Amino acid sequence: MRVVLSAHSQRDLTDLVLYIAEDNPHRARSYAAEIRNVCRSLSLSPKRFPAAPQLGPTVRYTRHGAYLIFYSIENDHVRIRRVIHSARLIDASMFR
Questions:
Q1: Cβ–Cβ under 8 Å, residues 54 and 71
Q2: What does the domain layout of the chain look like in residue ranges?
Q3: What is the helix (H) or strand (E) element at residue 9, kind and residue range?
Q4: pTM of this prediction exceeds 0.85
Q5: Among the CATH numbers 3.30.2310.20, 3.40.50.1000, 2.30.30.30, 3.40.190.10, which is that of 2-95?
Q6: pLDDT digits (tens, 9 = 90+) for 40-94
Q7: What's the rounded Cα separation, in Å, for the pair 10 and 27?
Q8: Backbone angles phi and psi of 93, in degrees to 5
């Protein structure tokens, strides 16, 4: 199953890289690569992580460090919907 990043998740990753790069540009790139690897790994067994029905009927999530990776399993792919720092207030409006 392939993994597709939504426009929101791509923007989230860009924001994450820019934020971390303020202090450590090398770590910003490597951390983004780690998150992308976690996202790619979802193609193997996407149902292994819990659902988050309060955020939407198909939303699931996993984490990498302080970041939560929200995704949905669609017909032929896994769609990464958001990559959000766990300290943020997260609600269903972020997934529309």
A1: no
A2: 2-95
A3: helix 7-21
A4: yes
A5: 3.30.2310.20
A6: 999 999 999 999 999 999 999 999 999 999 999 999 999 999 999 999 999 998 8
A7: 18
A8: -65, -20
